[in-house]
Automatic annotation (TrEMBL):
InterPro entries: DAP_epimerase_DapF. Homodimer. Keywords: Amino-acid biosynthesis, Cytoplasm, Isomerase, Lysine biosynthesis. This is Diaminopimelate epimerase. One of its GO terms (molecular function) is diaminopimelate epimerase activity. Gene3D superfamilies: Diaminopimelate Epimerase, Chain A, domain 1 (3.10.310.10). Pathway: Amino-acid biosynthesis; L-lysine biosynthesis via DAP pathway; DL-2,6-diaminopimelate from LL-2,6-diaminopimelate: step 1/1.
């Protein structure tokens, strides 16, 4: 069987996308998905997504991490699948779709490469020592640091992700350096088990945790620089709940092709 795939990236977080509206591909095959995401023996990606039909929404996003296992929400993946759905003419400029964490609204630029994605509301932010722990659709550990450009994010992120508190469920680990007018963020991603160039639910978690840290209530707009580009997070914080959270940034088509499945 030949699989027709599309490759997209959002700030360097890269994904394989498959139009599975006819349900022709059975994606519950972890080894095949992991092989497709492999950067040396496959297409190469941080994750793979299937766009499917579902009742009451424009489409459903079914997301797997690069290890081939089903995952929680992927923010940059969500932005990329919106760009893919526009390419497939599923909607014009606004869409409502279903993901593993529920309903998402998104808006796309006319050129089809800049996506504002509404994320789930967030209430609970826990503390673990000097770090914040929260779920923005996926679980995140957020820690402030200095000299982030020189940090060994792979080793330190991996150690936290595999520590006693987080080993069984796993967690994504985000390090932040505050530059005043923007935050610089680097993320070790669960399921990729490596540092990625960007993580959408991760930068969302960072923006919310920093608003709590600085007690910034009201309308917030946080600019974030990641290894693969720039992202923006808008939200409202009333001192308890974060709502109207939007993750905004580039979502770009890279290439498409066919791959043989054995
Ligand atoms: N890249 C993502 C997060 C994908 C899920 C994550 N690897 C996990 O297992 O929690 C994003 O952009 O949010």
């Amino acid at each position: 069987m030949k699989l027709h795939f599309f490759k997209y990236q959002g700030a360097g977080n890269d994904f394989i996308l498959v139009d599975n509206r006819q349900n022709t591909f059975n994606h519950q095959q972890p080894q095949i998905l992991a092989d497709l995401c492999d950067r040396r023996f496959g297409i190469g990606a941080d994750g793979i997504m299937f766009l499917q039909n579902t009742e009451g929404f424009d489409f459903e996003m079914v997301y797997y991490n690069a290890d081939g296992k089903p995952s929680s929400m992927c923010g940059n993946g969500g932005r990329c699948i919106v760009a893919f759905a526009k390419h497939l003419n599923i909607f014009k400029d606004e869409t409502n779709f279903l993901a593993v964490d529920g309903w998402h609204y998104a808006k796309i630029s006319e050129a089809g490469d800049w996506v504002s994605l509404q994320m789930i509301d967030v209430k609970d932010i826990d503390e673990d020592g000097d770090a914040y722990v929260l779920n923005t659709g996926s679980p995140h550990y957020v820690q402030c640091t200095t000299n982030l450009a020189d940090k060994d994010v792979f080793s330190e992120g991996k150690a936290i992700r595999n520590s006693d508190n987080y080993r069984s469920e796993g967690i994504n680990v985000n390090f932040i350096e505050d530059f005043g007018d923007h935050l610089f963020v680097r993320t070790y991603e669960r399921g990729v088990e490596n540092e990625t160039y960007a993580c959408g639910t991760g930068v969302t978690a960072v923006a919310l945790a920093m608003a709590k840290h600085k007690n910034h209530t009201g309308e917030n707009n946080t600019r974030i620089k990641v290894l693969g580009g720039n992202l923006n997070i808008r939200f409202n914080y009333d001192g308890k709940v974060f709502n109207n959270i939007f993750l905004e940034g580039p979502a770009k088509f890279v290439f498409e092709g066919y791959v043989n499945l054995i």
